[in-house]
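Q: Could you write out the predicted structure for this multi-component system? I'm mainly interested in how the pieces pack against one another.
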Amino acid sequence: MLNIVVGIKWVPNTTLVNIDPRTGTLIREGISSIVNPHDLVAVEMALRLKNEYGGTVTVITMSPPSAIAGLEHVIGMGADRGILVSDRAFAGADTLATSYALAKTMERLDYNLIVFGQETIDSSTAHIGAQVASWLKIPYIYYVTEARYIEDRNIIRVKRALENAYETYELELPALISVAMHSLNPRRVSIYNKLRVKLESPIETWSNEILGLEKNCIGLKGSPTALAKIEMIPKVLRKNEVFKGNDVKKAARWLVKKLLEEGLIEI
Ligand SMILES: Cc1cc2nc3c(=O)[nH]c(=O)nc-3n(C[C@H](O)[C@H](O)[C@H](O)COP(=O)(O)OP(=O)(O)OC[C@H]3O[C@@H](n4cnc5c(N)ncnc54)[C@H](O)[C@@H]3O)c2cc1C
């Protein structure tokens, strides 16, 4: 049986986010949030494993309370339990402080597999999986596209995608895997699932009163990294001129002529 914990992040929909050029910070006002799309792929893998081998899927997010909507979303997909880790003491956490709080939360759960997404769309460090595994001292593998549970050996056999090859690994449980983005299609939300959990076991909120974490290890105090500045890369305005045909010599001559005309190269 697999007792799976999945980490999801409630992120601003970055396709709508802009940077304030004066302060260099994200303009979050009026921007809706969504479950990090790569985490929906992780939830999908966890649900498929649960359906095949039995067990439970618990989903955790460390976030302000608005992320309850994200937990409800994945419960609608079929997860059994949702835990919001939320406290003002966690604010300003970098990846180290975030992974510490997540690992300490997970330690309190009866799990044998942790599943994360590949990375987030708002910070994309891909730090959290490796750091949580390191806090918990459990094996970790990244870019997983397939997983099978081999119960009698207490291992999970995973396929990992490289640029031009697949690798197969066997990890002793408990273990942590990060699922490669786009490797599975997340299922739709069922209203029945959402209602069932709302009535039977509503989402739990765990504050630092429950977790009792050392103040110097969480939030800003536990964060050795500081974001100094964000700069937007200026958008290149494209002319969308395309050479038609498959004569390479002609294409090269056409390109050189264009670059000369634009003053981008000199002969
Ligand atoms: C100095 C500094 C200050 C910061 N202050 C803030 C702040 O005040 N508020 C703020 O919102 N962010 C803040 N951040 C960003 C925050 O540290 C990261 O968003 C967070 O640690 C997760 O890292 P990531 O998004 O790069 O996740 P990645 O490492 O790219 O995520 C990998 C996977 O880990 C899991 N995961 C990631 N985050 C969570 C989470 N929170 N809960 C559960 N699972 C998760 C998901 O499965 C995800 O796919 C700050 C960062 C720095 C460096």
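A: Regarding packing and overall arrangement: The chain has a mean pLDDT of 93.
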